[in-house]
Amino acid sequence: MSRSKVRELQAVDAHGGGDAAGRVSPLSSPTDDLNQQIIRLLRDDGRAAYDIMGQKLGVSGGTVRNRVTRMREAGMLRIVAVVDPVAVDYEADAMLGIKTAPGVGPAALAHRFESHPAVVYIMWVSGRFDLLVEVVCDEETELASFLDEHIHGHSDIARVEVMTRIGMFKNQFLLKRHVP
């Protein structure tokens, strides 16, 4: 292979996480063993120092930084902050089981809710509901206002079941459990 072709493949790999054939580089692949270990550490603390992570994994901090950068550039890793509603002591939270009105798609209704700050979770589901929507509020009056303003009396909702929290048995609060 010519030197120019090698440089071209390296450039594609460095900027897209894959080679000219679209294959994912092992350095950015979430199936790579080191990357899985890095992801596990980031799940515990998304702000962990790369040098400390490297010490735990037996590699340099630069290696960890490079792996994280490559996984992020390849679109295979996103580091986000997630607020646990139980830990911040919200006074009211509820899971809403929503059946959309005939002719209304779940995505359209989800889009209506997604920008509301009290809505922390929207999932399209099968079964008797079309959507599960979790709402967390500072006060019970805020939850009641949300239901009055955004749920009850809206023509895009056929039926809603409001399920409020009585107790919490497990709250792992992970975005995804398994990395492919």
Overview of this protein structure:
With 180 residues, the chain is an alpha+beta fold. The chain contains 6 helices and 4 strands. The protein has helices spanning 3-16, 33-44, 50-57, 61-73, 106-113, 140-151, and strands at 92-100, 119-124, 131-137, 157-164. Strands 2-3-1-4 form a 4-stranded antiparallel beta sheet. The chain is elongated, with a radius of gyration of 22 Å.
* Count of alpha and pi helical runs: 6
Low-pLDDT regions: 1-20, 175-180
How much is the radius of gyration in Å?
Answer: 22 Å
- Secondary-structure element string: HHHHEHEEHE
Share of β-strand residues: 15-25%
First and last CA, distance: 33 Å
CATH topology of the largest domain: Alpha-Beta Plaits
Domains, number: 2
Q: Would you tell me the overall average pLDDT? A: 79
- Largest beta sheet: strand ordering: 2-3-1-4
Query: Largest sheet, if any?
Result: 4 strands, antiparallel
Return the CATH class of the largest domain. Alpha Beta
CATH homologous superfamily of the largest domain?
Lrp/AsnC effector binding domain/regulation of amino acid metabolism (RAM) domain
Structural class, please? alpha+beta
Based on the coordinates given, report the CATH architecture of the largest domain: 2-Layer Sandwich
Summarize the structure.
The chain has 180 residues and is of the alpha+beta class.
Layout of secondary structure:
Elements: H1 3-16, H2 33-44, H3 50-57, H4 61-73, E1 92-100, H5 106-113, E2 119-124, E3 131-137, H6 140-151, E4 157-164
Antiparallel strand pairs: 1-3, 1-4, 2-3
Descriptive keywords:
180 residues; single chain; elongated; 17% strand; 37% helix; Alpha-Beta Plaits; 4 strands; four-stranded antiparallel β-sheet; alpha+beta; 2 domains
